[in-house]
């Protein structure tokens, strides 16, 4: 147990404190068990509940979903249920301590007295913000450390007047607990930081929902952790708004999403969609890879013009007159008629597939008229003059409007006519158009003229059958907008689903009304935040899907809030797809412009955002590095200075006494030596993780050499030893990092120094550098050896 120097607790006193906290924590777990049993019982009853028919089925599904969600939430908070306690100074509104944990628990038998307060509730805030200088009524902040359900320690800070000194120069809250958390071995999966959130992080996590907030921070400053805790906070605080539309968290790649995947469930939140930009086009797997040059060009805003041109290129008119053979007769569409039809269709400003109807209508009118004239002249040539009856006038027309409509209809169904008209203005999907464009030199040449240089155009050309790439996805999304789709059938399906959802929602509320075990207060709480409309939107009755799951299947879904991590890597086209998913512009954007590796990425937030929100975005900064020890940051700072002497590295929160090492190894020998190098690092991190960060062309050979190292198998989701290129290591962290051939890492990318900076800052404890070429000046601070 650690205590602040002035709390005067002796060893027997500490044991007594731990025992007292154990008693309370056991009571909380008892309450958790009771809640769990209740949810289980309700779930079983719901599953068993009889009745067939749609209403009964909707009710059963509703109740099952509600109780399963509750059960999942109660199970997710088992580890570290309670982690904090606040005692207030005399005269404060609260004279008894409050306990802070992963969710709220109440004592129904004592007027719903709070037993445990959710960390997101406003009353919990002083736990994260109070300092000795500004105690906010807090006399003592206590971190309670538990292992399973056992209290193993308490860390106290006395904050009331006269106790200054419990926070150091970085203004850390709960320093002992924080340092203990940071010293933990990494497992390969990110953990939550709910017990040790720091004040500058808390202010970002709890910021308002609306508007665009950019969080800029150097490596290890907790940007990812803050982004995820913000998602949990927003879902708790703005549940009503966000449950219906969902929250989207965007990360750079699937390795990263796996790494962060457990954080939100551990905070009891499962309603968030985690996705890369490349996964935002439902039904399409972007498994291919572009060259960096192609990815950069595809990411440019100029691609909007290229795609617009490519769509217009599919709206053609014949060079000469177009002749169509219909039932032995040749009908002719001359260029002028087609041009006028095209202008009319384009003039509607509808997307291509919807404007097509206008184009076809015009041409069918023209064909039908021709056909009628043809028929009339045949009739007139062959039939002798018949005198008019008294009530007839001679307007020259033998066929009336109904005949014209019939002829038009026949033409519209004639396969030859359809083929001819489709040839001029085809109905086309985004996939068909993009694939045709990127595999046809002629189409590419036409669409890129005036927008890309010839050599840039050539970079885009690819072979038919190539895999889709992540950089294709924003282009497909853009095309989906430009092309549009005839959505009559979709709208009918949606209306049907809304009717079902409404029936479902009413069912849920009925069940809550009938359930006698739900206490009145609880009923009030539920109906306070839910009504049938809200519930109907929230849950898909037909499929039992949540908003996040429905969003994953719907390209046109718009989210209540979008959080973007490693946002500096996104291209201009990526931003367009994200802005389309978030018309409310309620966004949290986290990143570090010093770490941009992608040539399509950004080095200025304004450069990206001004286009969408002018200057109405706010910037917050994180300044303390929780990951990388000072010894490693000193070395990394040299690289940062080479990137831009104006940039400042974040301040490390701890030192390890372990200097980074460097050693030369001839390139040909690296494969032979890497295993012994990694073995030393594995021993140094005692069960922690090791990453070997390499230039692309060493990845395969070194992975093969290190197969099985540290007991890692190919199926491991969280391997102890990983061999990665820098772009795949982005956002991740490891206990020890070995950077191989840093000069090649720098040389192989347009932003090579940024990549090196990222590589050096992945380590939580140890860093080694293996030079295969000349030593780099910026790394001269590392010690020779190993
Ligand atoms: N308040 C905190 N308490 C405990 N651990 C923290 C805290 N803040 C950050 N960390 C830890 O610091 C490490 C770095 O955090 P994170 O990955 O979120 O940083 P980042 O800013 O996204 O880094 P990068 O830009 O380098 O990817 C993680 O292990 C995270 O859990």
Automatic annotation (TrEMBL):
<dbReference type="GO" id="GO:0003677">
    <property type="term" value="F:DNA binding"/>
</dbReference>
<dbReference type="GO" id="GO:0043138">
    <property type="term" value="F:3'-5' DNA helicase activity"/>
</dbReference>
<keyword id="KW-0067">ATP-binding</keyword>
<dbReference type="InterPro" id="IPR027785">
    <property type="entry name" value="UvrD-like_helicase_C"/>
</dbReference>
<feature type="domain" description="UvrD-like helicase ATP-binding">
    <location>
        <begin position="196"/>
        <end position="629"/>
    </location>
</feature>
<feature type="region of interest" description="Disordered">
    <location>
        <begin position="46"/>
        <end position="68"/>
    </location>
</feature>
<dbReference type="GO" id="GO:0016787">
    <property type="term" value="F:hydrolase activity"/>
</dbReference>
<dbReference type="InterPro" id="IPR014016">
    <property type="entry name" value="UvrD-like_ATP-bd"/>
</dbReference>
<dbReference type="GO" id="GO:0000725">
    <property type="term" value="P:recombinational repair"/>
</dbReference>
<dbReference type="InterPro" id="IPR000212">
    <property type="entry name" value="DNA_helicase_UvrD/REP"/>
</dbReference>
<keyword id="KW-0347">Helicase</keyword>
<feature type="compositionally biased region" description="Basic and acidic residues">
    <location>
        <begin position="58"/>
        <end position="68"/>
    </location>
</feature>
<dbReference type="InterPro" id="IPR027417">
    <property type="entry name" value="P-loop_NTPase"/>
</dbReference>
<protein>
    <submittedName>
        <fullName>ATP-binding domain-containing protein</fullName>
    </submittedName>
</protein>
<keyword id="KW-0547">Nucleotide-binding</keyword>
<dbReference type="GO" id="GO:0005829">
    <property type="term" value="C:cytosol"/>
</dbReference>
<feature type="binding site">
    <location>
        <begin position="217"/>
        <end position="224"/>
    </location>
    <ligand>
        <name>ATP</name>
    </ligand>
</feature>
<dbReference type="Pfam" id="PF13538">
    <property type="entry name" value="UvrD_C_2"/>
</dbReference>
<keyword id="KW-0378">Hydrolase</keyword>
<dbReference type="GO" id="GO:0005524">
    <property type="term" value="F:ATP binding"/>
</dbReference>
